[in-house]
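Can anyone check this?
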Amino acid sequence: MESTVSEAVGLDAFICEIDGFVGTLIDQLAPPPTTSPPAVTVSPPALVAPPTSSPPGSSPPGSSVPGPPDGDDGSRRLFDLLYNPTRVFDEPRLDAVLVAAVGLRNLADHVLASATAAAERAGVPTRRHLRSGAQLLTGLGVVPGTAYRLARVGRAAHELPAVTQAQRLAGMGAELADAIGVGVAHIGARVDLDEQQRADVVATLMVQTTPGEVAKKARAIAIARTPDNPASPVPVAEDEALNEMTLTQGADGCIVGSFDLDVVAGEELHAALDALCRPVPGPDGSVDPRPVGKRRADGFAQVIRAYLSGYERPTSGGVLPHVSLIRPATTPSWGSAVEQSVDQLGFTGPVTKKTATLISCDATVDTILVDGAGAPLDVGRMQRLFSPRIRKALIARDGGCAFPGCGRPASWCDAHHIQAWEADGVTSVDNGVMLCRLFRYRNNRHYAESAVMPILRESVLVSGFSVEL
């Protein structure tokens, strides 16, 4: 009985110590009560004269590094270090804080995961009419994704002692521990593992450095250890029958898509997008300003355009796939059916006049003139579009994008009218120029109306280029 009471008192005292440490940390992070948080400023290193003797914490003789900041007699707090660090002098302290904070975070994750699993074993969620221990964490302000991850880690702790020990020693965070648990479960669902095999698998997964690498290694182990059997079901990741893709149009007209592809189709998609998603420096050597999401979207659009510009592709409704631009023959009068009198694309519907004018130069677009009732008047005009032979001549002359300093390859470019087709421009080598999409769409302005077109027109006229068509 005495030992039980002693252990209970010791546990309560330790919990109080944890609470006291949290309070101390909060105090250390709080700004001084009478001052606002200081701005993060860095003073230039001061030349420190070599002292006759180097007291602890000072700069070594002959070094040109700043000494300890004024008032560094133990009165500095963590707030001062984080918001007003001193060059060089505070570097060891910042390293120590980072190491300690990472270890503290890993330990905190382990305590949260273990406490959640213990609460489930003690029936706490059931008594509080909750479905799982994760809801205990969400009730304390933990976001659902993190809460359910911690709950999974806590439940798997007794099955993965090596992972639990690494967490207990502050050497592993919850994200990596959860990935290892999910990976072991993935392998165990496909092959039977004895204790030694499970330990070997865990050891292999623990040397991976990211959750993504853990998942990839787990899939590789599962495939390698699964016996070849033609009658066995196709793995989910390789079953193309499960592929799905959705395309929906939002209220603003934007297209929102999602897809779930097998690994082969996903690999092909990655291969197609890889080169197109890389940052492209500007003509002046500046860094590509597009974020990764924009680069990926641009690359995806380029893949689609490259497909539509080909000739060996499936037909759609008996004709090669193309973009149809439906344009009204006349401008409607006020009070008429305005919504039926705007330019429209075949799949995605209405577009602005600016966009319709811009894409009308594209060789993969057919313009269909319709009357007020929507009946076709003129389904495209072949003389408006640049023929393959004219395009070859433009490629031979321009070599790629003709915008000064760009130089993107011809496969990224469209043949573009210098004098717009709508402004009585003709489809010819002299009135054509190769431009990539980045500069065609720059600032959402048609280049026939921008300042660069006169420059390109002049360069074309003075080039003296001719080609035998």
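Reply from J.R.: I decoded it. The domain at 388-462 is CATH 1.10.30 (DNA Binding (I), subunit A).
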